[in-house]
Specification:
One of its GO terms (molecular function) is methyltransferase activity. There is one protein chain. The protein is of the alpha/beta class. It has a single domain, classed as Rossmann fold. It contains seven helices and nine strands, in the order αααβαβαββαβββαββ. The strands form two sheets. Strands 3-2-1-4-5-9-8 form a seven-stranded mixed beta sheet, with helices on both faces. It has a two-stranded antiparallel ribbon with strand order 6-7. It is globular, with a radius of gyration of 16 Å. The relative contact order is 0.16.
């Protein structure tokens, strides 16, 4: 029986470049603004980690021009595309919940629409790891759920591409972040379809 992570990996492998094409408008509008806000807060050439980098566009392309960037994705197909699209950046295939870095390694961490692919019971420990990996006054830019929901879509973006999501509501995420020691710099509701996601910019 497939695990949630199997579904996510196989879904993004199957989608390949169709994922970016589907979200191209959002990637060309929202993403540059979000990343520019983050970049202004980070020291030049500092280390930045992205969880769920997909094909490297636009985040890796933008951030790798100013920072020591590392992108992680569960999908080997997406990482192959990322290496082609942004050859100057560093990428690795990995499960974000199995990563290990020394404390205070990164000045910034980006996780846009990626944490919500992790089963909810695993998310608090992951978020605590992100806190630990950040330097003091480091920043986490992430998008998480607005409403609580766990489920799958059997034909997401393209026929035959299944996908899994799991997230709690925005107020619960906020309580987790606060308990860990994060300060909310900014939060915003990002509409999508009949619902949407919540974007957080957090400081350690």
């Amino acid at each position: 029986m497939k695990t949630p992570k199997d579904i996510v990996r196989e879904g993004y492998d199957r989608l390949a470049g169709a994922y970016r094409k589907h979200y191209q408008s959002d990637h060309e509008t929202n993403y540059p603004n979000w990343l520019a806000s983050l970049a202004l807060l980070l020291p030049p050439a500092s280390k930045v980690l992205e969880l769920g980098c997909a094909d490297g566009l636009p985040t890796a392309h933008i951030l790798s021009q100013q920072f020591d960037y590392l992108g992680i994705d569960l999908s080997p197909v997406q990482i192959k595309l990322a290496r082609q699209n942004v050859p100057a950046a560093q990428f690795a295939v990995a499960d974000m919940t199995a990563l290990s870095f020394p404390d205070q390694t990164f000045s910034g961490i980006v996780a846009l629409y990626s944490i919500i692919h992790i089963p909810l019971p695993e998310q608090p420990a992951l978020l605590k790891s992100l806190y630990n990996w950040l330097k003091p006054n480091g920043y986490l830019l992430c998008s998480v759920g607005t409403d609580e929901w766990t489920g799958t879509d059997e034909n997401w973006i393209a026929p035959g591409a299944s996908m899994y999501w799991s997230h709690t509501d925005a107020s619960t995420y906020l309580s987790w972040f606060s308990a860990m020691g994060f300060t909310v710099v900014h939060s915003d509701f990002i509409p999508e379809g009949n619902s949407g996601h919540t974007l957080f910019l957090l400081r350690k």
